[in-house]
């Protein structure tokens, strides 16, 4: 089976660095907050053009810690996309904040700034743009709205580490470094993944960085002095050791993904049954996912079955919009509230994409997809 990701081949290529770094952690037994954690935070901060990086246990924690560090209070409203992974809304709900959902752009899958504008009300405190599937949300209009209405911006960068946003002046900014706080995940299958769970927050504001550190560390800045209720959220030294070995390869990994995506686009773009992903003019795309939109007359399950028969994995990201998830049902929203999101949930299909997928491998998969379509549609 051609897998969605190939972490084993990736490991084999960097085995010496990874094994050496892991052995060092075990040798010196600094399993928590060891030198690897501090070194990784500095190295990632340098990669991200000089932001402060505060590591934590996972990407969901990063979002929660961001909202706690900004002092958001129950009832405060945060505007985010209806088409995203559940973690974005989960952190909001856990803190008894109020998610206000907006629909997304059908081409880029990013939240639509015009709808953000329309959703701003007297209780709005923050916007949480999600850089979905690997390209940046339209940050300039979002940042302008946030500035005009005095809102925080928390970027969910879990799928887009390494992507760059080009502003109107031609300056380039890393995803996750434009808002007040950027949040990311090092889940193994993310573009920069460790060998377990991990996450981090980014900020350019050093006072905020200190607050984030305090919240992530049981609400203490001096040991055993707890000034407020925090959480316990740390990146293991072993995971930091893995991430230090992988960070120097991140740009290469991302460009291998983009090359595979270009190959898919070239071959699949000709099919009347598929819409290949669009890259917005203001962003690079690091293709955390390569996501097709299927023609309404093409049955998704039939195509998936035909792909499985050809040894090709596929996944649906995401089958159910946030506002239709049982845990997040809300009388403000019903079927039809977010038509683009609902339509995407019915029609998207993601193909294998990862750092080890060669142009030849992508060509082979794309041709088998066309072969499957030929079988189904003639
Ligand atoms: C993966 C992901 C998260 C959560 O990351 P975890 O490390 O799994 O907690 C949050 N938001 C988005 C968009 C993600 O893809």
Task: Note down, in words, how this protein is organized.
The chain is α/β, with parallel strands linked by helices and 378 residues long. The protein folds into 2 domains: 7-248, 3-Layer(aba) Sandwich (Aspartate Aminotransferase, domain 2); 250-377, Aspartate Aminotransferase, domain 1 (Alpha-Beta Complex), CATH 3.90.1150.10. Helix content is 39%, strand content 15%. It has helices spanning 7-13, 15-28, 35-47, 59-69, 87-94, 113-119, 139-149, 206-216, 237-246, 250-268, 300-309, 339-347, 359-377; strands spanning 52-56, 77-81, 98-102, 124-128, 152-156, 164-166, 172-174, 181-185, 199-203, 220-222, 225-226, 274-275, 290-294, 348-351. Strands 1-9-8-5-4-2-3 form a 7-stranded mixed β-sheet, with helices on both faces. Strands 12-13-14 form a 3-stranded antiparallel β-sheet. Strands 6-7 form a two-stranded antiparallel sheet. Strand 6 (164-166) and strand 7 (172-174) form a beta hairpin. Helix 4 (59-69) crosses helix 8. The longest helix has 19 residues, at 250-268. The protein is globular and about 70 Å long. The chain starts with 6 loop residues before the first helix and ends with a helix. The mean pLDDT is 97. The structure holds pyridoxal-5'-phosphate.
Q: Please identify which CATH superfamily of the largest domain we are dealing with.
A: Type I PLP-dependent aspartate aminotransferase-like (Major domain)
Say how many strands there are: 14
- Derived from helix and strand composition plus strand pairing, the structural class reads alpha/beta
The secondary-structure element order is HHHEHEHEHEHEEEEEHEEHHEEHHEH
Helix content: 25-40%
Number of domains: 2
**Shape call:** globular
Radius of gyration: 21 Å
Distance between the termini: 25 Å
Q: Which blocks of ≥5 consecutive residues have pLDDT under 50?
A: none
Note the total helix count: 13
Cofactors, ions, other ligands? pyridoxal-5'-phosphate
CATH architecture of the largest domain: 3-Layer(aba) Sandwich
Mean pLDDT: 97
Strand order of the largest sheet: 1-9-8-5-4-2-3
Q: Kindly report the CATH topology of the largest domain.
A: Aspartate Aminotransferase, domain 2
Main sheet?
Answer: 7 strands, mixed
Estimated share of beta-strand residues: 15-25%
The first-level CATH class of the largest domain is given as Alpha Beta
């Amino acid at each position: 089976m051609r897998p969605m990701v190939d972490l084993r081949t990736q490991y084999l290529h960097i085995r010496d660095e990874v094994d050496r770094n892991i052995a060092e952690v075990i040798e010196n037994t600094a399993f928590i907050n060891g030198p690897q954690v501090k070194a990784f935070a500095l190295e990632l901060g340098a990669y991200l053009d000089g932001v402060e990086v505060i590591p934590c246990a996972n990407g969901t924690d990063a979002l929660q810690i961001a909202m706690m560090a900004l002092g958001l209070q129950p009832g405060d409203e945060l505007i985010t996309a209806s088409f995203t992974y559940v973690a974005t809304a989960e952190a909001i709900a856990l803190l008894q904040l109020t998610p206000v959902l907006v629909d997304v752009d059908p081409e880029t899958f990013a939240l639509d700034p015009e709808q953000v504008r329309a959703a701003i009300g007297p209780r709005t405190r923050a916007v949480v743009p999600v850089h979905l599937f690997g390209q940046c949300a339209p940050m300039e209009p979002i940042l302008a709205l946030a500035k005009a209405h005095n809102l925080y911006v928390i970027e969910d960068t879990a799928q887009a580490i390494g992507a760059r946003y080009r502003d109107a002046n031609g300056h380039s900014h890393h995803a996750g470094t434009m808002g007040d706080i950027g949040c990311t995940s090092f889940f193994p299958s993310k573009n920069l993944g460790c060998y377990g769970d991990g996450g981090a927050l980014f900020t350019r504001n050093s006072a905020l960085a200190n607050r984030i550190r305090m919240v992530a560390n049981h609400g203490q800045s001096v040991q055993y002095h707890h000034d407020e209720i925090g959480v316990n959220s740390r990146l293991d030294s072993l995971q930091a050791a893995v991430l230090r070995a992988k960070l120097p390869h991140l740009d290469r990994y991302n460009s291998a993904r983009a090359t595979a995506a270009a190959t898919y686009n070239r071959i699949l773009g000709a099919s009347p049954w598929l819409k290949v992903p669009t890259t917005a003019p203001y962003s690079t795309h690091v293709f955390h996912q390569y996501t097709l939109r299927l023609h309404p007359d093409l049955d998704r399950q039939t195509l998936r079955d035909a792909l499985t028969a050809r040894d090709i994995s596929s996944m649906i990201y995401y089958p159910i919009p946030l506002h239709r998830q049982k845990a997040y049902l809300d009388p403000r929203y019903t079927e039809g509230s977010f038509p683009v999101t609902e339509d995407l949930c019915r029609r998207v299909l993601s193909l294998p994409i990862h750092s080890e997928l060669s142009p030849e491998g992508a060509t082979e998969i794309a041709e088998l997809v066309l072969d499957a379509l030929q079988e189904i549609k003639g």
